[in-house]
């Protein structure tokens, strides 16, 4: 089994900051890319940011300059630092990881359960 567990969501005022964390655990041989997606009510899930195992990053245009993704490979954890938050950032944020399992060496995408981020005054 492989699990992704997110934390760090909550309610914040516009202009505020939050830091999301996502820890992967279980029968992990290797983690390739890790990333964050979000889904607002009535909208499709969209990519927010992704980071490769080597540390290369990519961001959605809407969050460039405000969000920073990072990872700690020793802890199998990915972070999303969100600054200058706007009401439009309100969504459920999901962690995603491309993982190769031990034993079977099967590679597939895994998802966290999601964490709510609400930006409101």
Short description:
About 0% of the residues lie in helices and about 60% in strands. It has strands at about 1-5, 10, 20-25, 30-40, 45-50, 55-60, 65-70, 75-80, 90-100, 105-110, 115-120.
Task: Describe the protein's topology.
Layout: E1 2-7, E2 10-12, E3 18-26, E4 28-39, E5 46-51, E6 57-59, E7 67-72, E8 77-82, E9 91-101, E10 107-111, E11 115-119
Parallel strand pairs: 2-11
Antiparallel strand pairs: 1-3, 3-8, 4-5, 4-9, 5-6, 7-8, 9-10, 9-11
Largest sheet descriptor: 7 strands, mixed
Mean pLDDT rating: 97
Which percent band covers the strand fraction? over 45%
Query: What is the helix tally?
Result: 0
Our measurement of the CA-to-CA distance between the termini, rounded to an integer number of angstroms, reads 40 Å
- Principal-axes geometry comes out as elongated
Q: What is the rounded Rg?
A: 14 Å
Number of strands: 11
- Decide which structural class fits the backbone: mainly beta
The helix content, as a percent range, equals: under 10%
Encode the helix/strand succession as letters: EEEEEEEEEEE
Low-confidence stretches: none
Oligomer: single chain
